[in-house]
């Protein structure tokens, strides 16, 4: 077995040509596809990471907004409670005033009615006394005596009414 | 065929002047042509944006090999992948060619030195020392070229170091180591495939029909392992050469 240079050269050229053809038509396109796919994967991963970060920021904003809304709601409720308390007090006071006014009005009305009744009674009693006395004393007393007696009786009656 | 035909060297099937065209050269050409056709066909499918099972299969095989190279040398996978894959594919198909039907039975009757001689038409490409030496030269030349490309002139300091006698001697040993790698590459592959071919011929002669079947399976495995070892060692040697450490 001896090495023949031309056979060796033939095999070297054959292998070199094969390497060139495979590299040109097979390896390069496949490596290109693999690199493009890896790039797409890397981009997708980056996009997903960025989306996750954005989501986290949005969640934090949501939480913050919810906390603020809760605080605002508590404030509103407290303000409403305070306002309701004031309104209640006011309403009660107004009602009390109104009731007092009604009571006073009724009292005045009652006083006026009492005064009317008193006047009527006075008049009726006076008329009755006059009539009775005139019947009794028609013939025994002179008109001047009758008048003085009537006046003294009226005064007595007035005193008695006032004492009542 | 009444007797066994075993020849350690490839035999010429025709002559072009002084140039002898051997049976292993024919198989080398056929393997290269087959692989080139597959590559060109794949390229055409890709250009036409045709999604076929053929293109998918080819892409899957090549991508698996690319991932393998990436696992060994993650930063230079794109650079070393073509050489690794070509060595692997050429060696595996060149070795499996010994399993072709009619390997040692179809041939020519040639008259050599006045005597009629049977010359088989086909012989495994890697069962010829010229083929294995050519691939080994390609592999070891690539190791030196990549070493120089990545490390510059300082790469050769490991061979020629005149700082002191010990380093000079170590450099000498390094040169011997490079040549021994070349020789081990050549003869490991040649020895394994040639021995396999001889084994198949002998078994087919002794136990025809089903006798060689287990050995065919064994040779398929040997072909795969030899291709992987050759390509893998080339990749490792290149990886060592491009790294900054000197070994």
From TrEMBL, chain A:
Segments forming a coiled coil: 31-83
GO terms of molecular function: proton-transporting ATP synthase activity, rotational mechanism; proton-transporting ATPase activity, rotational mechanism
UniProt keywords, alphabetically: ATP synthesis, Cell membrane, CF(0), Coiled coil, Hydrogen ion transport, Ion transport, Membrane, Transmembrane, Transmembrane helix, Transport
Membrane topology value: Single-pass membrane protein
Cellular localisation: Cell membrane; Endomembrane system
Key word Transmembrane present: yes
GO cellular component, one term: proton-transporting ATP synthase complex
Superkingdom of the source species: Bacteria
Predominant cellular place of this UniProt entry's protein: membrane
Pfam families: ATP-synt_B
Cleavable signal peptide: none
Spans through the membrane: 6-27
Annotated function: Component of the F(0) channel, it forms part of the peripheral stalk, linking F(1) to F(0). F(1)F(0) ATP synthase produces ATP from ADP in the presence of a proton or sodium gradient. F-type ATPases consist of two structural domains, F(1) containing the extramembraneous catalytic core and F(0) containing the membrane proton channel, linked together by a central stalk and a peripheral stalk. During catalysis, ATP synthesis in the catalytic domain of F(1) is coupled via a rotary mechanism of the central stalk subunits to proton translocation.
Protein family (similarity comment): Belongs to the ATPase B chain family.
Subunit structure: F-type ATPases have 2 components, F(1) - the catalytic core - and F(0) - the membrane proton channel. F(1) has five subunits: alpha(3), beta(3), gamma(1), delta(1), epsilon(1). F(0) has three main subunits: a(1), b(2) and c(10-14). The alpha and beta chains form an alternating ring which encloses part of the gamma chain. F(1) is attached to F(0) by a central stalk formed by the gamma and epsilon chains, while a peripheral stalk is formed by the delta and b chains.
Protein name per Swiss-Prot or TrEMBL: ATP synthase subunit b
Source species of the chain: Candidatus Beckwithbacteria bacterium GW2011_GWB1_47_15
Gene designation: atpF
